[in-house]
UniProtKB/TrEMBL annotation:
<keyword id="KW-1133">Transmembrane helix</keyword>
<keyword id="KW-0472">Membrane</keyword>
<keyword id="KW-0812">Transmembrane</keyword>
<protein>
    <recommendedName>
        <fullName>GRF-type domain-containing protein</fullName>
    </recommendedName>
</protein>
<keyword id="KW-0863">Zinc-finger</keyword>
<keyword id="KW-0479">Metal-binding</keyword>
<keyword id="KW-0862">Zinc</keyword>
<feature type="domain" description="GRF-type">
    <location>
        <begin position="14"/>
        <end position="59"/>
    </location>
</feature>
<feature type="transmembrane region" description="Helical">
    <location>
        <begin position="117"/>
        <end position="139"/>
    </location>
</feature>
<dbReference type="GO" id="GO:0008270">
    <property type="term" value="F:zinc ion binding"/>
</dbReference>
<dbReference type="InterPro" id="IPR010666">
    <property type="entry name" value="Znf_GRF"/>
</dbReference>
Length: 140
């Protein structure tokens, strides 16, 4: 197993007169490679303050870059899949809630029918109950 030697990070004072920021690159060319830069460095605008820049870590081999980038892509895919599964779970929970309400309404309707003597034949009642139960358990 090849390890990347790490140097201890020390603070430098940039030309602006402030301590440098310790940052980590996450680009495909330099994944997880630490560097120091002027603390006025803005990654989004590429504004570099006084232009102080220094790599802290040595450069990875191409194989290490490929493996790191592949693992980062896998993690991103898993995050997307997790987000989709959470949305699907929320949908199933919502559907379960609707089915439970429908089941309660049917039970109430059955109670009213019994009270007023409007009972359906027993097998129809059992059939309705079985269908509702099957639908409820189908989602779990």
């Amino acid at each position: 197993m090849t390890t990347i030697p790490r140097r201890k990070t020390s603070f430098h004072i940039c030309k602006c007169g402030y301590p440098t920021s310790n940052l980590t690159s996450w680009t495909k060319q330099h994944p997880r490679r630490r560097f120091q830069a002027c603390q006025f460095y803005e990654q989004d605008t590429d504004s570099r303050g006084c232009d102080f820049f220094k790599w802290v870590d040595i450069e990875m081999t191409e194989w290490q870059k490929d493996v790191t980038n592949s693992l980062m892509a896998d993690v991103n895919m898993q995050k997307i899949e997790l987000r989709m599964l959470k949305m699907e779970l929320a949908d199933v929970k919502g559907e379960k809630g609707c089915l439970e309400l429908e089941n309660q309404a049917l039970k109430h309707q059955l109670t009213v029918m019994k009270k007023h003597g409007l009972m359906l034949p027993a097998f129809y009642c059992i059939l309705v109950f079985v269908v509702v139960v099957v639908i409820l358990f189908r989602y779990f």
